[in-house]
Amino acid sequence: MDCLFCKIIDGEIPSTKIYEDEYVYCFKDIAPIAPIHYLIIPKVHISGADQINGENSVMTAKVFEAAAKIAKSEGIESYRIINNCGDDAGQTVKHLHFHFLAGVKMGWGPESLGITK
Ligand code: 5GP
Ligand code: ZN
């Protein structure tokens, strides 16, 4: 399958690995928007959050489990996890991924989420 993140999991495309287990892979985002910006992805190909179902939803739980482990191991007390689903929400890579952001005081509200209207 021609999927960028599947290629990253396979090591076909290099990435800076942060964490890996049987279910998920975590690596640095190539264009960070925060001092700490990781992507956490399930190792199985799921094209987006709209494709989560009873068969594969355990993968999302594994992503959040990994996030908690990563935060603990790096001494991160606050973090934000973001998923963009669909074009208007800003999803550019069609392999389910969660942005893990930390290392800065974050705002909350329409502007901080990029909502302009
Ligand atoms: P989305 O916009 O789909 O929610 O997030 C995709 C993310 O993947 C973006 O933050 C983008 O910077 C990151 N990204 C795109 N291509 C690559 C790549 O080749 N390597 C890494 N490490 N990150 C990438
Ligand atoms: Zn994929």
Structure description:
By secondary structure, this protein is of the alpha+beta class. It is built from two helices and five strands. It is globular and about 35 Å long. 19% of the residues are buried. The mean pLDDT is 97. It binds guanosine-5'-monophosphate and zinc ion (ZN). The site of zinc ion has 5 residues, from helix 1.
Question: What amount of the residues lies in strands?
Answer: 15-25%
Oligomer: single chain
Low-confidence blocks of residues: none
Structural class: alpha+beta
What overall geometry do the principal axes of the alpha carbons give? globular
Q: Portion of residues in helices?
A: 10-25%
Main sheet summary: 5 strands, antiparallel
Straight-line N-to-C gap: 36 Å
- Tell me the Rg in angstroms: 14 Å
* Rounded mean pLDDT score: 97
Strand order of the largest sheet: 1-2-3-5-4
Total of DSSP H or I helical runs spanning 4+ residues? 2
Could you outline the blueprint of secondary structure elements for this entry?
Blueprint: H1 4-10, E1 17-20, E2 24-28, E3 36-42, H2 58-74, E4 80-82, E5 98-102
Antiparallel strand pairs: 1-2, 2-3, 3-5, 4-5
Quick overview of this protein structure:
By secondary structure, this protein is an alpha+beta fold.
Features:
117 residues; alpha+beta; five-stranded antiparallel β-sheet; 2 helices; 21% helix; binds guanosine-5'-monophosphate; binds zinc ion
